[in-house]
Design brief:
26% of the residues lie in helices and 33% in strands. The chain has 9 helices and 21 strands. It is an enzyme of class 3 (hydrolase).
Amino acid sequence: MTSSQQTEIEKHDDTDVVLSVQHVGKFFKLPTEQATGLKQAFINWTKGIKGYKKQQVLNDISFEVHRGDFFGIVGRNGSGKSTLLKIISGIYMPDGGTVDVKGKLVPFIELGVGFNPELTGRENVFLNGALLGFTHNEIEDMYDDIVDFAELGEFMDQKLKNYSSGMQVRLAFSVAIKAQGDILVLDEVLAVGDEAFQQKCDDYFTQVKKDPTKTVILVTHSMDSVKKYCNKAILIKDGDIVVNGNKEEAANQYTLENIQSEKKDAERKKGEYPDGLNEHCPLLQVKPISNQICKSSDTFHFEVEYDYSEQNEFYLALALHDLRRGGIAYDTGSKALKFTQTGHHSVEFEMPLTVFNNGDFRLVASLRTPSKTDPKKSDMVAFTNDANSCAFAIRDSKNRDYALLSDRALTIKCVETH
């Protein structure tokens, strides 16, 4: 963490705390055996059968949000972040712990909730505002700002059912962000509307970030949004906070969680051998040695472990797949890496990353033997499936996100104009 990041995190004192979550826990009762009548219910009771099992969603959650924070909450699906958001918003009650809110909290958990298609746009603004806890006069004061931001002035007296989906999204989002609350709670709603409206939202949040009186709590899967807008963030995993405060650490750890989870999801067996392997080569996998969250200045170290007992020469071919943009970013060629050591071995490799921009990548290996019909080619014996390949990510503030190659690798210069 840089000194400026540390200063930004620590700039508030305790009197600025607008949301305090202390030791919050939450569980749900999931039905397992339902009684069809009083008799069965009585039998279940005598046998000690509860008819439900307890699912603990949040364990012991504690954090504070200060006035002026743009606070991120991230975590994979099922981590408990949406449940936490509903507890903060007063939709759920915690089973343990306390939630203390200072000021008016405006929750916006789902776009369009509370909108009635049979009412006009104007009527829906007042209806939605009332559901958020504002009086008629308060909504009247906000109305022009809401309509101006949504750019729907000429449509506000039409019924909502005649709006396009894009118009409905713009109106719903405008009600949320223009409602004059002290704390705005947003759940996955930054990427709404068309490109022009998204740019407008981006400009708005850039301004909000600079306003010391505005407090925003953002739940998102977009780590770009976390790094761009948030000054603090927490990462939740299996109902626990595993990163508290540092937005860079939370975003990078989330990316790593995704990489590891995708690997586990891919670990499925088909028959005796995993996909890509067989009796000739029962083991072939690419494993990381370096940290899987890298900078472009790093050299990524990895190893290929194989078990191949046929007594002939063979090749290890490596390919780098670009998971974000698609396609193969690099390939060694099918006959580039020749080996003669058969049996069970591990081979260590290194790969400089300086030419790449930010992205998500996967290293895939295949074991090949010389072709019996064409000396210039090779035949594949085995390959690594997703579970046996190695994924990693590049996250570097010096890079861009769009193109694969960095400006260090390739720059197009104007030579002459005619």
